[in-house]
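Deliverable D4.2, example record:
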Amino acid sequence: MRPRSLELRTPRSEAEWDRLHAIRKSFIFDVYHPPDGPWPCEYDPAHPDDRDPANKPLLLLADGEVAGTLRLDLKPDGRAVVRLVALTPGFRGGGLGASMLDLAEDLALASGARALCVNAQPEVVGFYARRGFVPGRWEGCSACPRGVPMTKALMGGLHGPPTPRRGAAKPLLRRAA
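Output generated by the structure prediction step:
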């Protein structure tokens, strides 16, 4: 069932911060960076990047319930980097990932970004490609050989004219009177 309301915002309580960290640990670090895996990395809930004023740790709330998380890092050169993207299993498969990415794109545009960047896991490259991202290295992209750096132009940014969102309404053209 599609939620009636979606909100992408910063955590407002200790409980919401705890939920953000639990989602990241369980659905990103435990999956892609386990201690016995080829790219081990222990999740640090006190990592200083979450406190950098240019970085926006965000929760996706669906009808008021925490459904997922991402962090949007705003760079001075006009890039916005989408990081630490995860939906809890009960919210997957219904289009909420695309909705969360659209909300993050809106926030990036409102903040003056001209391009989005992401380090995609191989199994979600198609998802990002359908949202207008193209493979390409960018300054600060992951050195992890598993990650696939991708970018998307916003407002004529990195790769020319912006890619329209899938299913986005076309503007109405009216003749001047």
